[in-house]
Each structure stands twice: as structure tokens, then as C-alpha cells.
Design goal:
Structural class: alpha/beta
CATH architecture of the largest domain: Alpha-Beta Complex
Strand order of the largest sheet: 1-2-3-4-5-6-7
Oligomer: single chain
Number of helices: 26
């Protein structure tokens, strides 16, 4: 019976190896297949002694050739490893890494989302004669071992919401958070709260969680990984992958694959290699801190030595994060880092000062990432001048707002309280004096004068005339009639192009349908004339992964737009109100975000914070994160979100305005975390486009699934604007949300 069990185990090992290497011919696999097949044929005729000897020989052969095959693994082979049903899962880790745990938030099929597991666990450590039980919150995607109800670890919005809820519980209890990433990506559903909205919320809150966060990555697919991946220490399993998109998805885009068609295995293999998705690639680029070595061909549930190693690594990582923000730490830090001594006890709870240092170190860690993935073409003197200006603004802001502003606020509050008391005591007398004063000529207001703060934006008289538009779209030069797509539904008559794109600003005069307009239309018709002053225009998008053919595509985009990246940053004014703006241009590679765009966005946010100015993100369109930059692109999601959080916590006013099509990573992070999001009437907003949703879920979505009013109904955006009223509405928003001179919460 033991022989038959061993034969079955060898058959499973062979099947596992064949699954990993797919249809590729391999002499080592062929040898294993041949040897095992021969033994199975001869086994009934052999004596027990010979069976045991040949089984032992086969086991040695399997172990030897598995080590050889390990060296032949390609990036796509590693993708197949992490997707295999025999791959370790989170339940295996909970059973073998932690000493005890209680699953919370629902279990298995009866959970709010079975793809997300939350567990309150503890790790027992014996130092000397004393035993310590150190509690921890464990959060991660669960793929299981072929359990269909787990949805392959693809988490729905409410699963990510559950994860965030228990991160906040861990923060309240002052215990560390260990997150485990086992996901190909989030489930692209826009039902409330919406995939993009919830990931943005998770990133924003994780940036400010005041307990250590340790992340272990096995399969890290884009936004799904980032939803629980913003951590102080990021570890990665040696056979794992971390990528902006799956190799199949990248191949579909590169090969321009239409629905119903399939990509070739060769193209998928090529894209997996180009994306630089392996643990070694990500360690070299700086997006993970350490690699945890797995057994040959990947960790499986019976690899108990691996679980022991994983336990040591997560303990060590948690200790390091805590010691990095503690006061008394020198000898223990030395023992952990240099001697790798696991028998050092570190208390994992943090005090108030340590929590502040933790948040600051987390911000600095992510701020320093992806610096190699863009080009800053500014001359040295200009960089020095820029640093000097930043320092000057920082000093000015400190004295103006932190020193003088604080005293002014106190005085103002005292005066308001005194006035309130006087009004209560002398109300009648003051009213009579005020009535007499208002009758005097020099106190009278002009008839019809209203307060700017309470007036609503209106369509100004004469605004239908093209003379009111500073910029006229080139589409207005077409001498032809254009039919509105809603003509059958609403009976719209054909419009002459010069009228439609000139006088009517691209808006159907019958039904209000918005035709696409160039981003230049907004630059010249929303902001005050000659008020736009661009900065950081020298920062240039590059090809950091040497992705084949991408260099040429970038050059074409730069030549077509006259910009070096897909993000334009500038200062401008709207009816005299100054604002810092980051504009994502759909014309430049679909408005996709890479390292250059992320860096420019962060610098714009920092400029707004230093100058105490409101910050506007105008999204003329974004296709998401630039896949050709791999994790250099996806890391911009947490980087930019952390910059936005720092700005908002300082009291900043952050407004987002969507236009045309806005999808994926940016919407699921630094755009989606704004408390004030609006859309031009023509906008489509969501986490994934219709094609991606069909490919990943098999569902056909309705044509209006991503329309702005759907985003409004689920609370993603706060209003929908007519293009012709954007200038007035933006001014109104800035005035009512911040006031003419007050953009920071000074009270």
C-alpha cells in the first residue's frame, strides 16, 4: 500500500511539473515521464525489496531533476506556478506560520467575499525562559486549492472594504498587520462601492495606518495587489510575480487581439519576460525589500521547512519596522540585520512618537521609488534653484501659516466669541444702530449686489457666441453636417460642424450630448488668459524596461503632442483664484500613467502644499497605468496617493474633474481618493473597460455601465457638469469649498 501511495505522489509531482512547463518540450521532463512509466509497468512483477529500491531511486531522480528544472524556469513558468491549485494558499500559511488564529468577517462560502480572508492570529516567541504571545492581524486574498467559490483570489469591492475595516481594528488595538497577496487582480465590478473607489479608499487609509504593515507577495496583479499592498516592508516569494497586468493581458494589447481571438503562447512568454515581473526583477528595481526563498519549483502545502523560513522572515520584518521607529534600538537592530538573530524580543506596540515616525518613514520610502524610471532634463543650476525655491516657500509657509496664522486664529476666535456675547447681551441696541448706519450714503450697497460665496454659477449672457471662446477647436473647420448619436432617440437635427465645435463648444444644442474636445479647449477657455505657467516640463517619460518597440511609440507621442510625458503641470488662475493643476492628456498614450507622470503629479501636489494653494486634477482621459513600464508604473498608485494624503492632512483642497474615458489604476488610487470629484457630462469612469470586464468575468455589461451618472448614483463623483459651465462651476467650487483666500483649514 505504501508503494502505491508513493507512486501516486510521484504521478502528482510529474503532473505538477508538466503543468508548469506547459506544452514546451523538455528532455528532463521526458526522462521523468519515461522512468516513472517504466516502473509502473514493471511494478506488479517486482518483489517488495526491489520496489522500495527503485522507488528510492525515482525519488532521488525527481529531486535532482527538479533542481535542474528550477534553473530553466522562465517568467511565464513562474506565473503558472503561482496559479497552480497545488500552490500554497493563505489557509496553509495560517495553519503553519502562526501559532493560533481565529478567522473573522465570515468564513468560506458564507463570507461577505470568500476571496478575502481576515484572521486575528498570534505568534508565540520564547526568549530565554519567557514566552511572549504577540498578536497580529492577518489579511490576504485566498485562492484555495481549486475552490471555485474563492473566485481565484479576485476580490470584489466589499472584500477590500472588509480588509480595510479590520486594518482599522488593528490600528485601534495597536497590533501589526500582515498582508498576503494572492490575486491576479480585483474583480472589475462597479456595483457600490465600486472596484476603483474601494481600492482608492484602501490606499488612502493604508498610507496613514499607525501600526506596522508587512506584505508578502505571491501573485501580485495590479490594483488588486495594491489594495492591501501599501506596506512598510514588502517581501516576495522567490517564485512569485508582481506586475501591472497579466502576461496574457499584455499580449492581447500588444497583439491587438479582438474579442473571440486568442494570443499565441510565444507572445505571452515574450510579454512575461518584457514586463520584468519576477522577484529578482522587482528587488533590483527597488519595489520589494527581500526575497523569501522557496523550494525547487515553488512552495506546496507539504513544504514545512519553507513555512518555518516564512515565519522567521515575517517576524524579522516586523521587528525591523518597529525598531526603525523606536528610540532605543541600536544593538537589537544590529543583531537582526547583521547577525540575523531571530531570538531578539521586540515589543510590537508603538507609542505616539513612534507612530508619527512610522508614517513619515512610509511616505519617504514610497516617495523615493521609481526615480530611475524617468528622465529629468533640467540643467543642474535649475535643479538647485528649484530646491532653493522649495526651501524658501517652506520657510515662508512655516512663519506665515504655522506661526503667525496660529496666533491670528486664536485672536480671531477670541474676537468672535466676544462679539457673540455682545450680540446676545446688546442685540436690540446693535440692530437699531446697524439700521441707522445702513441708511447713511457711504454704507449703502448697489442694488442687486450679492455675496460671491452664495451666488450660483449661471450660463452668462452671450456665452453662445464663438467670440466668448478663447480657443476654437480645429474640428470647427470642417465644412460638413454632423449627426448626434442620440438623433433617433431624441430627434436631434444635424448640426453644422463650425457651429457645433465653435459656437456650441462641442455640445448638441438639442439633447446636450457632448462630443469629444481637445484638452487645449479647457486650457484656454477655463483658465484666465495668460495665467498658465507650466513647471517641470523637462521631466520625460522613458522606456525603463527596454520594452520592445515602445521607444518608437513614445517618440511618436512626444512629437504629436509637443509634451515629454502624458501629464502637464502648471499654475493658473480661474477668475483671479490661483490654483495648481495636473492635467492627464488622453492624446499622449491614452493618458496612461508611468513614472514620469507620477513624479510630475507628486511634485505638483507638493507645490500646492508649500504654496498653500488648491490643487486641481483635470483628467482629459486616462487608460490607466502604462503597462510597458511594468511595476515602475503600478507603484505610482501608492506613491501619488500618499502625496495626496499628506496634502489633504495639511488642509489642502483637492478637486478632480473627469472628462472622456477615465479607467483603472489612476481612478483606483490618487484620483479616486479625492473627496471632491466631478465629471464633464460626456465622461466614462470605472475600474476596467468593457473588453477587460468581458475577458475576466465573461459578463456582457450594458452600454451605459461606465457613464458619469452611474458613477454619480453610487457616490463616486459628486456632480456632473456641462462643458460650457466648467469655468463657472470650478470657480464656484473653489469659492464655496475654500473661500477666496482660505484654502487650508486654519481653524
Amino acid at each position: 500500500m505504501d508503494i502505491e501511495k508513493q507512486i501516486q505522489e510521484l504521478q502528482e509531482r510529474l503532473k505538477y511539473i508538466e503543468d508548469i512547463f506547459g506544452s514546451k518540450e523538455n528532455a528532463n521532463i521526458a526522462l521523468l515521464r519515461s522512468k516513472l512509466s517504466d516502473f509502473i509497468k514493471r511494478y506488479p512483477k517486482l518483489e517488495l525489496k526491489d520496489c522500495k529500491r527503485q522507488i528510492a531511486s525515482l525519488l532521488d531522480l525527481f529531486s535532482f531533476l527538479e533542481k535542474k528544472l528550477e534553473k530553466q524556469l522562465t517568467p511565464m513558468d513562474k506565473v503558472r506556478i503561482v496559479r497552480h491549485p497545488q500552490r500554497i494558499c493563505l489557509k496553509d500559511i495560517l495553519e503553519n506560520v502562526y501559532d493560533n488564529y481565529t478567522e473573522i468577517g465570515g468564513q468560506d462560502e458564507y463570507s461577505i467575499d470568500p476571496a478575502m480572508i481576515i484572521a486575528r492570529a498570534y505568534i508565540t516567541r520564547k526568549v530565554g525562559n519567557k514566552v511572549y504571545n504577540q498578536p497580529v492581524m492577518v489579511i490576504g486574498q485566498e485562492k484555495g486549492h481549486g475552490q471555485e467559490f474563492r473566485n481565484g483570489g479576485s476580490v470584489k469591492p466589499w472584500g477590500n472594504a472588509k480588509a480595510l475595516q479590520y486594518m482599522k481594528v488593528a490600528e485601534t488595538e495597536n497590533i501589526p498587520i500582515h498582508t498576503y497577496i494572492f490575486t491576479p487582480g480585483s474583480y472589475p465590478i462597479e456595483d457600490y462601492p465600486g472596484a476603483a473607489q474601494q481600492i482608492a479608499r484602501n490606499l488612502y487609509e493604508m498610507a496613514g495606518i499607525t501600526v506596522p504593515i508587512i506584505t508578502v507577495i505571491s501573485e501580485g496583479g495590479s490594483g488588486g495587489a495594491e489594495a492591501i499592498g501599501l506596506a512598510d516592508m514588502r517581501l516576495m516569494l522567490s517564485h512569485g510575480y508582481y506586475s501591472v497586468i497579466s502576461p496574457e493581458g499584455a499580449a492581447a494589447i500588444e497583439g491587438r487581439i479582438k474579442p473571440g481571438m486568442s494570443t499565441t503562447p510565444e507572445l505571452v512568454e515574450k510579454c512575461a519576460a518584457q514586463l520584468k515581473i519576477t522577484a529578482e526583477d522587482n528587488l533590483r528595481m527597488g519595489y520589494i525589500d527581500r526575497i523569501i526563498k522557496e523550494p525547487p519549483l515553488g512552495a506546496r502545502p507539504e513544504d514545512y521547512d519553507f513555512f518555518k523560513r516564512l515565519r522567521q522572515e515575517v517576524i524579522r520584518a516586523t521587528d525591523e519596522v518597529v525598531l526603525n521607529v523606536r528610540g532605543i534600538k541600536f544593538f537589537r537592530t544590529f543583531a537582526l540585520r547583521k547577525l540575523k538573530n531571530p531570538n531578539i524580543y521586540v515589543r510590537w506596540t508603538l507609542g505616539a512618537k513612534s507612530k508619527e515616525r512610522l508614517i513619515w518613514r512610509r511616505y519617504r520610502k514610497f516617495r523615493g521609488l521609481s526615480q530611475h524610471a524617468y528622465i529629468d532634463n533640467r540643467p543642474a543650476w535649475k535643479k538647485v534653484l528649484s530646491k532653493g525655491m522649495d526651501l524658501a516657500w517652506a520657510i515662508y509657509s512655516f512663519f506665515r501659516y504655522d506661526i503667525l496664522g496660529r496666533h491670528q486664529r486664536k485672536i480671531s476666535q477670541v474676537v468672535e466669541d466676544v462679539q457673540g456675547e455682545l450680540h446676545a447681551a446688546l442685540g436690540k441696541t446693535i440692530q437699531q444702530v446697524s439700521r441707522i448706519l445702513r441708511e447713511l450714503p457711504f454704507f449703502k450697497k448697489e442694488k442687486g449686489e450679492t455675496s460671491e460665496l452664495t451666488s450660483l454659477s449661471t450660463w452668462e449672457k452671450g456665452s453662445a457666441s464663438h467670440t466668448d471662446w478663447t480657443y476654437i477647436s480645429p474640428q470647427a473647420r470642417q465644412d460638413r453636417a454632423i449627426s448626434c448619436p442620440n438623433s433617433e432617440k431624441y430627434g436631434c437635427l444635424d448640426l453644422w460642424a463650425p457651429d457645433l465645435f465653435g459656437d456650441f463648444a462641442g455640445v448638441c444644442s438639442y439633447c446636450g450630448h457632448h462630443f469629444p474636445m481637445e484638452y487645449e479647449w479647457y486650457l484656454y477657455n477655463v483658465f484666465d488668459p495668460r495665467s498658465i505657467h507650466e513647471f517641470n516640463e523637462e521631466i520625460e517619460a522613458t522606456n525603463p524596461l527596454d520594452y520592445e518597440g515602445f521607444e518608437h511609440k513614445l517618440e511618436q507621442a512626444k512629437k504629436m503632442t509637443g509634451h515629454k510625458s502624458g501629464c502637464m503641470t502648471f499654475e493658473a488662475s480661474i477668475k483671479g483664484l490661483k490654483v495648481v493643476v495636473a492635467l492627464l492628456m488622453a492624446k499622449f498614450r491614452g493618458g496612461s500613467v508611468g513614472a514620469a507622470e507620477g513624479e510630475k503629479f507628486i511634485r505638483a501636489v507638493e507645490r500646492a502644499r508649500l504654496k498653500h494653494m488648491p490643487f486641481l486634477a483635470y483628467v482629459h482621459g486616462t487608460a490607466g497605468i502604462r503597462i510597458q513600464e511594468g511595476t515602475n508604473g503600478v507603484i505610482q498608485m501608492p506613491r501619488c496617493t500618499m502625496a495626496v494624503r499628506r496634502y489633504l492632512e495639511a488642509g489642502g483642497l483637492y478637486v478632480v474633474l473627469y472628462d472622456t474615458n477615465s479607467y483603472a489604476g489612476p481612478v483606483a488610487s490618487f484620483l479616486g481618493c479625492s473627496p471632491y470629484q466631478f465629471a464633464v457630462r460626456s465622461a466614462n469612469i470605472g475600474f476596467a473597460g468593457p473588453g477587460v470586464i468581458k475577458e475576466t468575468t465573461g459578463l456582457d455589461i450594458p452600454p451605459d455601465y461606465h457613464r458619469a451618472y452611474r458613477a454619480l448614483s453610487r457616490g463616486h463623483i459628486q456632480g456632473i457638469w456641462d462643458r460650457r459651465e466648467v469655468r463657472n462651476n470650478l470657480f464656484q467650487a473653489l469659492v464655496t469649498m475654500g473661500g477666496r483666500n482660505l484654502y487650508y483649514r486654519l481653524g
